[in-house]
Structure formats: C-alpha cells, structure tokens
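Aim 2, interim progress: modelling of the zinc ion-bound target.
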Amino acid sequence: MKGYDEFMFDPGKQGEVKCKVCQDDCKFRGTRYGPRSYASAMAGTSTDFDYFECLSRNEDWHRQALALIQEINSTPSARLATMLREELQEVLANKTPTKTDGY
Ligand SMILES: [Zn+2]
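Predicted structure of the complex, ligand included:
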C-alpha cells in the first residue's frame, strides 16, 4: 500500500526509503510515467516519478503485518492496540503470518 510498502517520489529526489511495515530498505524500481495517485488518475494527469517498493510486500506475513498496522491505527481501544502490536512484533520477527485468511 502506498505510503507503507510502496513509495513514489519526484525523480532523483529520494535516494532510499525504508518500508514502514518491516523497516527493510525499499528497492528502487525505476522511474515511471503515469498518474501518481487515484486523484491524478481521475484528473488524467501523468507525471514522471521514482517508484520504490519493499521486496517482501506481496508475502503473506507482510500483508498481515500491514493489515495489523492499519488496525492499530484505527482502533479506539488502547488495550486492543497493545495486543495487536504484540502480534505484529511476532509476525515481523518470524516472517510468518499468525493468520492466513480473512485480512
Ligand atoms: Zn516491508
């Protein structure tokens, strides 16, 4: 997801960027041309941008970790957030999902 495990920057502006999910360095995938966001797609505007992505971003554990982070950010419960954070640490440490469906 953009802003977490994939990033777009103006060409040449950004040398490296860390994945906000697993903290690994994201890989530069080249300069691309196209709409950079949903809004610019709707407006029909395309620009050059440098595209970075985490190499693990399509792994099950990484997708679950991202879903947990989003849940932590959206839950109004501090206790639930603490539990979710513990599970997130476990998923990241083992690089294994604790749940394989439903997220
Ligand atoms: Zn990552």
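The chain has two domains: 6-53, 60-94. Strands lie at 6-9, 27-34, 47-53.
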